[in-house]
Design a protein that fits this description.
The protein has 164 residues and is α+β, with helices and mostly antiparallel strands. 51% of the residues lie in helices and 24% in strands. The protein contains five helices and three strands; from the N terminus they run H-H-H-E-E-H-H-E. It has a three-stranded antiparallel beta sheet. The radius of gyration is 31 Å and the shape is elongated.
Length: 164
Amino acid sequence: MFRLLIIVFALVAAVGGGVGGLVHFAIIPDFTGGAIANIVGVVGQKSEAEAAAEAAAPPPRVEPVYMQVSPMLIPVIQGGELKRNIYVALRIELEAGKQAEGAAAMPRLQDLYLRALYEIIPEQQKTSENLDLQKIRERLLVISERAVGPGVVKDIIFQSVFSR
């Protein structure tokens, strides 16, 4: 009889703990009107109306707009001879709704980027074998803002940069 009492007590404790855990982690709703939530310490749970209102109004997702810039090959000439060629492929991220402005300015941007890279990369290669892509990115963003105006080019992404 004593063994049966221990088994029943352990079974009730396991079921109660399981239900309390499920309510605590909001897997099942609290069907006791808050008694289990008070026991296991669930606080700050939202009512179903609040949760539905929050879930019903997610912000609209704006897909990023990218434009591919033609790959560029920049020669690094030091001491009167060709030391290496640096290949740069990049994309520009445009603000939403600015695709037409970006497409119209792409030939000019390509030319300005190429001129800037012809200046920046050999200068960086004089002091280090590695390129500081963050500085190059910042410089290209400034050039973009001057060429097409603020709020058109959002970011510049380097797809590949390598030396050969």
